[in-house]
Please model this.
Amino acid sequence: MNQKPSLPSALFHFVLSAFLVSSCQWNSPGEGISIGEPNGATDQAPVVSQPSGPGTDPKSCKSSDPEFQCLALKIVSYEASDKPSVLSKLEAETLVAELNKVWSPCKIGFQLEQYESVNPTTLGLQFDPNWRSQASQVRAAFSDNQTLLIVATGKLTSSTIAVTQMPGYSPFGTLVEDGFADNPLTVGHELGHYMGLYHYRSSSNLMNPYIGTHTENLTSSQCATARSTNQKNWAQMFRS
Ligand SMILES: [Zn+2]
Model:
């Protein structure tokens, strides 16, 4: 089985704990979980060495395919006085290129339109936020109505590694903690929530509660839901 060298081999346990937000948690490495083969070409060499094509360029996902949905992304990365940024700009670009491969079966892509590295304390925010009480404050500090928001933070409270506001409620945005912010299957899973998807119990599905190195499949039904959510909720993030 091919392995993605950039991904940890541990399995992640994601738990949907609320209707309004999807808080995703990490569990001890699972055992006996069957991991299906990935979607063909998305599991090969590092994305940065791939030739560009529709949806694979982190700086532009514009496509000649009229069905392709190209969405603008803003990534904010926390830095601390004694710590470099959680996610460097180069790491953010690599992440977006890999996200584009994950979401390419749905003809959905992302382009990194804004990248900011900020010291959260200068904005009155904690490096390690309590996601239950402070996630809205974090989202409100950085969200706008032109881009999807991902904030790479310090450690979130307890075992939660990422949390995403489901569409229909504001402020919008994904928080993902240090150590997982560069993982395209973690962030890709969160973007799935962003685009209206809930958990899906298939061992190889991106939205499975247990995410491993090859859990990146998406069904045609999930693609349809994500695409319709984007048209309904995120039309201002479209770039063409
Ligand atoms: Zn989840």
